[in-house]
Write a structure and sequence with these properties.
Elements (H helix, E strand, L loop, with lengths): L4 H10 L9 E5 L2 E5 L3 H12 L11 E4 L9 H17 L3 E3 L10 H7 L8 E4 L13 E4 L2 H10 L1 E5 L3 E7 L8 H12 L8 E5 L1 H5 L2 H9 L8 E3 L4 H14 L18 E6 L6 E3 L7 E3 L10 E5 H4 L2 H11 L7 E5 L3 H9 L1 E2 L2 E2 H7 L3 E2 L23 E4 L15 E4 L2 H10 L10
């Protein structure tokens, strides 16, 4: 029996000729990532179990990123960032992206690929559930807990169960009013928030092949919202060009080997969608699986629009939002948060009709914050864009649980940057086809 992409990567990591779903294997980790929320407890467990003088298994394979609670006066948040800094210095880690210096980058899941840490065929683990984002680069990437991370820090290994694979095929090309966010919200609404529990979610088909790398990241990013163990996409020339460019630029490992499904690979289930029949999609409060069509929610007035996060704060997302807002003004508070400093620079570099994206967004009346996770995870009271009360917000983030973006009394609708920007113009949830 042949193997799927996910199975091949885990077989390589386990140094075995083959693996099958439900096998439990010891795997060797290529990259471990942690951040300011989970890093401090993981480091504490590492020292407790391996000794106060213990060294990490490979200082070139541990990536530490400050991104969640950083632009705040909160003392505990500042303490966490300092804990990262101290650990990175003590361990002489090669890749520490702090805050307040020229090494700062931004949201971990966007920083990892930008800095050349996501490579086809590899195993990437991170102390964040949206680590699955990196599956867009043809690797096995998944989130783990702090205790598991502590074990990996000391050994470079972890005990994993091999997931079976569910395959989602999107036929036909992507219409210009749709984005990857619409596709993945459609899938989650279809199978439910537990429909892919501990499965690898493979995204394929002409629509996936046709979209840019950052859009593929959006698909894999939200695999966890359906319970997926990981998301994954086959490599193509776009993948090789993106990864090759970033690894050369950052000086990270330049050698990688792509993987593909064997002709006789076995999938637990394959679901085929006609992309042209999917409409702009929204997830209503308080679940990513609470699916509705944007055009059916026109009576929902919004107080705030939020465009940012690892899901919706990339260059492609900013470009999409600006394409709607160019020459227009927002009717409600609209917060823009670029995911990374690279995206922030792109706001100046990229232009539409001779105007930079930053100029377009600013002239439309948007508030632009510094690169970070910002309000995606709520955060301290002074977090940029945080929802303090009973606001109704349409957001490009990935979760809309009660209190996720601040107050438990707020209501969050998840949508694509196109739909969010269209709603910013009208002040109510709006199908982007109405304004494009």
């Amino acid at each position: 029996m042949g193997m799927t992409m996910s199975e091949k990567i885990l077989a390589r990591a386990a140094r075995r000729p083959s693996v099958a779903p439900d096998d439990n294997v010891w795997v060797n980790v290529d990259v471990l990532m942690t951040h300011d929320v989970c890093g401090p407890p993981a480091f504490g467990i590492f020292r407790e179990k391996f000794g106060s003088d213990a060294r990490v298994w490979d200082r070139g394979k541990v990536v530490v990123i400050a991104d969640h609670y950083i632009f705040t006066s909160d003392e505990k948040a500042r303490r966490n960032v300092e804990t990262l800094r101290q650990f990175a210095a003590e361990q002489q880690l090669r890749y520490f992206y702090g805050v307040g210096d020229d090494r700062y980058r931004g949201v971990c899941h966007a920083t990892l690929p930008e800095e050349g840490h996501t490579r086809p065929g590899e195993l990437l683990l991170g102390t964040d559930s949206h680590t699955c984002t990196a599956g867009a680069f043809n690797e096995f990437a998944t989130g783990i807990g702090n205790t598991e991370a502590a074990f990996v820090l000391g050994t470079g290994r972890l005990w994993l169960k091999v997931p079976s694979t569910m395959r989602f095929v999107f036929e036909s090309e992507m219409p210009d009013y749709l984005m990857a966010k619409d596709l993945v919200l459609h899938v989650i609404g279809d199978i439910g928030v537990d429909g892919a529990t501990y499965r690898a979610m493979e995204f394929a088909g002409p629509a996936v092949e046709g979209i840019e790398i950052e859009e593929r990241m959006t698909l894999c990013n939200m695999a966890i919202e359906a319970g997926g163990k990981n998301g994954i996409i086959a490599a193509d020339e776009k993948t090789r060009e993106f990864v090759g460019d970033r690894t050369r630029r950052a000086g990270t490992q330049g050698q990688f080997e792509t993987v593909s499904n064997d002709p006789d690979a076995c999938f637990e289930r394959e679901i085929v969608y006609s992309t042209s029949e999917i409409e702009p999609t929204v997830a209503k409060p308080h679940s990513p699986g609470n699916r509705a069509r944007a055009r059916d929610l026109g009576d929902v007035a919004v107080d705030r629009v939020y465009i940012g996060s690892c899901t919706g704060g990339k260059v492609a997302d900013m470009r999409a939002a600006a394409s709607v807002l160019v020459g227009r003004s927002v009717a409600v508070e609209t917060y823009i948060v670029p995911a990374t400093t690279y995206v922030e620079r792109a706001l100046e570099r990229e232009k539409i009709n001779g105007k930079s994206l930053r100029q377009i967004l600013s002239e439309a009346g948007c508030k632009i914050g510094p690169p970070s996770c910002a309000a995606c995870l709520g955060g301290p009271a002074d977090t940029f864009g945080r929802l303090p009360g009973r606001e109704v917000c349409i957001s490009t983030t990935n979760r809309n649980f009660p209190g996720r973006m601040g107050s438990r009394d707020s209501q969050v609708y998840l949508a694509s940057p196109l739909t969010a920007a269209a709603s910013a113009i009208t002040g109510h949830i709006t199908d982007p086809r109405d304004v494009l």
